[in-house]
């Protein structure tokens, strides 16, 4: 079977010989690696009557780890700048947009934003290692007890505290 070009992120292409199973896996990886693309819209679509579903947004943030592991396994390049953008995901878009205007005086708003930003900074470090070809180190950075995992746990705790304080 001839080589198949698979678009991963932006203009990056990977040529590889693929059988049907590889093609299906590549499609799945492509759909998961799209996280690296920056958001083109300012409004997140997970709003329900003006309120953000924070648990759904946290679940989406938690889906990033398996996507990064898939990129490590498939040895794919990702957009580090896109992952580092704190307003590219639904939660960050909301925190830096609507929540900033609605809840600036809620005491847990700033710690929530800082925890979210720190999580994206840790993700950027992992993506940089992936792009450098340091796959073992990148995978180790996603393990339990690492700064990336601790940043995720801190972000979840801060977001839930903000949700409680803002009565969302």
Order of helices and strands: EEHEEHHHHHHHH
Total strands: the figure is: 4
User: Share of helix among residues?
Assistant: 55-70%
Instruction: Give me the secondary-structure category.
Output: mainly alpha
Biggest sheet: strands side by side, in what order?
1-2
Mean pLDDT over the full residue set = 78
Strand proportion: 5-15%
Radius of gyration: 17 Å
Q: How many domains make up the 3D coordinates?
A: 1
**Oligomeric state of this protein:** single chain
Distance between the termini: 54 Å
Give the helix tally.
9
Shape: elongated
Biggest beta sheet attributes: 2 strands, antiparallel
Unreliable runs, pLDDT <50, ≥5 residues?
1-49
In terms of topology, how is this protein built?
Blueprint lengths: L2 E7 L2 E6 L2 H14 L13 E2 L2 E2 L1 H9 L1 H11 L5 H5 L5 H6 L2 H5 L6 H23 L3 H7 L5 H19 L3
Antiparallel strand pairs: 1-2, 3-4
Description:
With 168 residues, this protein is mainly α. It has one domain (3-165). The protein is 59% helix and 10% strand. The protein contains nine helices and four strands; from the N terminus they run ββαββαααααααα. It has helices at 20-33, 54-62, 64-74, 80-84, 90-95, 98-102, 109-131, 135-141, 147-165, and strands at 3-9, 12-17, 47-48, 51-52. A two-stranded antiparallel sheet has the order 1-2. Helix 3 runs antiparallel to helix 8, helix 7 (109-131) runs antiparallel to helix 8 and helix 7 runs antiparallel to helix 9 (147-165).
């Amino acid at each position: 079977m001839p080589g198949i070009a698979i678009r991963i992120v932006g203009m990056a292409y990977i040529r590889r010989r693929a059988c049907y199973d590889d093609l299906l896996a590549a499609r799945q990886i492509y759909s998961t690696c799209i996280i690296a693309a920056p958001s083109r819209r300012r409004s997140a679509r997970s709003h329900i009557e003006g309120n953000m579903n924070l648990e759904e947004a946290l679940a989406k943030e938690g889906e990033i780890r398996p996507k990064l592991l898939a990129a490590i396994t498939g040895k794919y390049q990702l957009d580090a700048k896109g992952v580092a953008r704190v307003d590219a995901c639904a939660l960050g878009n909301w925190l830096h947009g609507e929540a900033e205007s609605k809840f600036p005086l809620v005491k847990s708003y700033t710690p929530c934003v800082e925890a979210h930003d720190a999580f994206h900074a840790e993700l950027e470090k992992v993506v940089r290692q992936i792009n450098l070809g340091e796959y073992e180190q990148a995978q180790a950075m996603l393990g339990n007890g690492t700064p990336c995992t601790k940043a995720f746990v801190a972000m979840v705790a801060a977001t839930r505290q903000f949700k409680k304080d803002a009565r969302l």
